[in-house]
Amino acid sequence: MSVTIRVVLPAHLRQLAHCDREVSVDAEPTQRGVLDALEQRFPALRGTLRDIGTGRRRPFVRFYACEEDLSHEEPDAPLPAAVAEGREPFLVVGAMAGG
Amino acid sequence: MSDPRRTFARMSGVRVLVGTRKGAFVLTSDERRLEWEVAGPHFPGWETYHVAGSPADPDRLYAAPSTGWFGQVIQRSDDGGRTWTPVGNEFTYEGTPGTHQWYDGTPHPWEFARVWHLEPSRTDPDVVYAGVEDAALFRSTDGGASWSELSGLREHGSGPKWQPGAGGMCLHTIVLDAADDQRMFVAISAAGVFRTDDGGATWQPINKGLLSDGIPSPAAEAGHCVHRLAQHPARPQTLYMQKHWDVMRSDDGGDSWQEVSGDLPTDFGFPIAVHAHDPETVYVVPITSDSHHFPPEGRLRVYRSRAGGNDWEPLTSGLPQRDCYVNVLRDAMAVDSLPECGVYFGTTGGQVYASPDGGDSWTAVVRDLPAVLSVEVQTLP
Q1: A13 vs B70: CB contact, 8 Å cut-off?
Q2: pLDDT tens-digit profile of B69-115?
Q3: Maximum CA extent, chain B
Q4: CA–CA gap between residue B93 and residue B150 (Å, rounded)
Q5: In CA terms, which of A40, B95, B205, B343 is 20 to 30 Å from B334?
Q6: Does B71 touch chain A (CB under 8 A)?
Q7: What interface predicted TM-score (ipTM) does this complex get?
Q8: Full-model pTM
Q9: Torsion of CA B97, B99, B102, B105, to 10 degrees
């Protein structure tokens, strides 16, 4: 069942997709559902979050919500209720890396 | 008395496309090349290895920004760099790509990392080639929307023996032959130079005459760290090469190479360029060594040979002659084709230098960009 999910994107991707910091997508409340819907709405994001070939999360991309790191959750695991209900956003974060 | 507005309208000019560690910049000037407009950064924060313009349509540009977080994207402009649109970024190797050698000699799977170089077709603005890491050649025939590998290169035989250079195993140079539309040259670090004579279907290594200390066989068919190739359109059989060490020349389309380092203060370096109107005038930027990536004695000097190599003269007017410890990377030098040939290069210190007189004098167009990765020039009508 699709619900409206709030997604917060980092600066590099906002610039690429020409969108605001926070966008909404109608999606299944899972990581895969949100990312599929995000790529459908903003085709320029295809390949920037997940490897196009394998579908795996890019190593320095992290997903957070409700102050929890969801990066290692299964793609089809349900997102927290607060995200599915629109009370909290799903955060896409470029990992702090480098010097 | 002529109308100055009409004079201005007829005046040609140049557009310099600069890729940097943190985005792209477009520098424009009229044919005098004295005053410059600087636009950018485009793609701020994205490491832009290369920006290139179509010879067939100067308003069509391609750029290759990437980041370690979000990977590779390709951007296209249809208005000379004022606005950009993301196009296709799916670079999938044909078939099962197999392995090449890792730094320690063990097999390593072929993995796409980034695009190093974009080479638009001379005749069709929708056709563009991409040289990528891990080394392979891709082509788009739809303006960058989709990409297909020319896998005959990677699969021609020596591929499993290719090893990365210090910067990764990259296909960094693509030369589309000026006379034969079926002929192309590519250079790979650290594999060497390869040529196709059938539009990219089949390839052969052309490294005869290259000598590289430190590899098991100094004269091996592949394994050479070629940094850059240059060709003059009026003499396509002649190729110039800046190798890891040695400046080389071929007069038979790459079948054999001779060293032309001559009296250079050091023959290590990255870029090499040929004067637009004289196939025997060549430019290099000597760099101290492979461990000291800065000019000898802290003096930034372009060296010019008017004899196709061997005899070189330093060009210093306007360039810093003390305390200069920048590098000039392989894709960061280019020439325009105005009647008095302009020469341009960018540094890892963020300067872009221009010479409107074939190298005799230089001025810094900009001094404080992010580290410059590439410089290309379009000569505008």
Answers
A1: yes
A2: 999 999 999 999 999 999 999 999 999 889 999 988 899 999 999 99
A3: 74
A4: 9
A5: B205
A6: yes
A7: 0.93
A8: 0.95
A9: -160
